[in-house]
Amino acid sequence: MAANTYRFPVQVIFGEGCLEETGAFVGNFGKHALLVTGSGPTSKCAAVEVLQGILTGEGITVSHFAGIEADPSVETVEKGVAFAGENGCDFVIALGGGSPLDAAKVIAARLNNEGDIVSWEGLGRIPRRSKPLICIPTTSGTGSEVTWVAVITGGKRRQKMSIVSQNLYPVLAIIDPELTYSMPPELTAATGMDALTHAVESCVARRAWEPTRSLSLKAAQLAYTNLEKACADGSDGEARHNMSMASFLAGMAFTSAGLGLAHALAHALGSHSGLAHGKANAILLPHVMRFNIAACPELYRELAVAMGLNVSGLPAPRAAEEAARAVQELVAVLPIPSHLEEAGIAETSLETLAAEAFLNTRLRSTNPRDTVLEDLVQVLRNASGG
Ligand SMILES: [Fe+2]
Predict the structure, then answer these.
(1) pTM > 0.85
(2) Which residues are CB-contacts of 169 (< 8 A; sequence separation ≥ 6)?
(3) Which residues have their alpha-adjacent CB atom under 5 A from ion ligand 1?
(4) Measured in angstroms, how far is the CA atom of residue 216 from the centroid of ligand 1?
(5) Ligand 1 centroid, distance to 307 Cα (angstroms)
(6) Could you tell me whether strands 159-164 and 149-154 are parallel, antiparallel, or unpaired per DSSP bridges?
(7) Cα 278 to middle of ligand 1, angstroms
(8) Are 138 and 97 in contact (CB under 8 A)?
(9) What is the pLDDT of residue 156?
(10) Which of helix, strand or coil describes residue 264?
(11) Interacting residues of 40 by C-beta distance below 8 A, sequence separation 6+
(12) Over the stretch 334-351, which tens digit does the pLDDT of each residue have?
């Protein structure tokens, strides 16, 4: 058996208004920052202006690359690398959701490493440490600011490639829950369900152990009990705080423990149909939980208890089923699709999607229950209709 591992080399600043304190932490990284943001409204949001003001006040020149699309491509990353090179940037700051953060990770890595990004897919294929990278999330779901993973679209099949490396870690994460207040309900729901999926999958993953599982259980509790509130009232500071905390804790858990089948399937759905990552996870999670119950009923009981469900006296498999049912009921009241059909995924595409997901041996290998191709088809069928 492999030794248990706990990875956490990222310095984290967390708290309402902590964006304002960025100046105290950036002085050592360089004199010319590449600022990476999405291409939509976030590229012009107040937080970008505040950040630029802080950096300029510290004597740092800022070059702003605002071209990151959802599910960023290898080509976009290379444009960012060229832009950074032209402007002489010596460190990188990413502000936004999972897509800008993931793209910035690979841009920062590419600035210190030659080679084809596609060849970095998988574990441990980036030779040297990236340029210093600071991540500032504006959503609460991805946890990318504290993980060693970046998901980039590319390769022969235009698939979502997970690039996983010790050399991808940011040096600093600045997590300011106030930056998430302006997220609309649909984005809050989708990204929040990504956080809950990270919590649940990392809790039962094969590489999970005591410290990672503590993080997973706390993250599941916070996400399950706060997501509906954060969607109903985006200015609910307590719910926003707790969702940011859930995302952060789940990120720390899964960067060491790994994920599982919901993520393998969600990546295939994203690659083939463009279904947003969090929406795919939301639809799939209860069905993957039910599939996995036979492998680890006691762990799902622990999750049910953490989520605040009354499962006392129930045998572990029944308590586990309650946890899956509660997740499904939560998704049903959120402003996102509950089934693949509702999300526009045709029944006829399920076998192709399962075959694509089956190629993701890394995520399947951390899932607690072994899988054959037909299992993946069945989980997708279960998630297909009401
Ligand atoms: Fe995810």
Answers:
(1) yes
(2) 7, 9, 10, 147, 148
(3) 194
(4) 14
(5) 19
(6) antiparallel
(7) 7
(8) yes
(9) 83
(10) helix
(11) none
(12) 999 999 999 999 999 999
pLDDT in tens, 55-75: 999 999 999 999 899 999 999
The beta strand positions in the chain, using DSSP E, are 11-14, 32-38, 61-68, 91-96, 122-123, 133-137, 149-154, 159-164, 172-175
- Whole-number Å distance between alpha carbons of 46 and 328: 36
What is the whole-number distance in angstroms between the Cα of residue 79 and the centre of ligand 1?
A: 25
* Residue 155: Cβ-neighbour burial (10 angstroms; 0-12, 13-18, 19+): middle
> What's the 45 CA to ligand 1 centre distance in angstroms?
25
Calculate the alpha carbon distances from 90 to 80, 107, 110, 113, 143 in Å: 13, 12, 12, 14, 24
One DSSP character per residue, 274-310 reads ---HHHHHHHHHHHHHHHHGGG-HHHHHHHHHHTT--
- Confidence at residue 245, expressed as pLDDT on a 0 to 100 scale: 98
CA distances from 60 to 35, 76, 205, 217, 292 (A): 11, 25, 42, 40, 50
Below-50 pLDDT ranges, the chain:
none
Which one, of 150, 45, 146, lies nearest residue 95 by Cα?
45
State residue 332's pLDDT score: 98
Amino acid at 295: A
A 10 A CB-CB count for 235 gives 9
Chain centre to alpha carbon of residue 264: 13
Residue ranges and CATH numbers for the domains of the chain are 11-179 (3.40.50.1970), 183-384 (1.20.1090.10)
Q: Give dist(CA 306, CA 190) in Å, integer.
A: 21
Q: What is the pLDDT of residue 43?
A: 61
Give distance in angstroms: CA of 195 to centre of ligand 1. 7
Name the CA radius of gyration of the chain, rounded: 20
Helix (H, G, I), strand (E, B) or coil at 268: helix
How far away, in angstroms, is 231 Cα from ligand 1 center?
A: 19
Strand pairing category for 172-175 and 133-137: parallel
Q: Are strands 122-123 and 61-68 parallel, antiparallel or unpaired?
A: unpaired
**Residue 230 near residue 139 (C-beta atoms within 8 A):** no
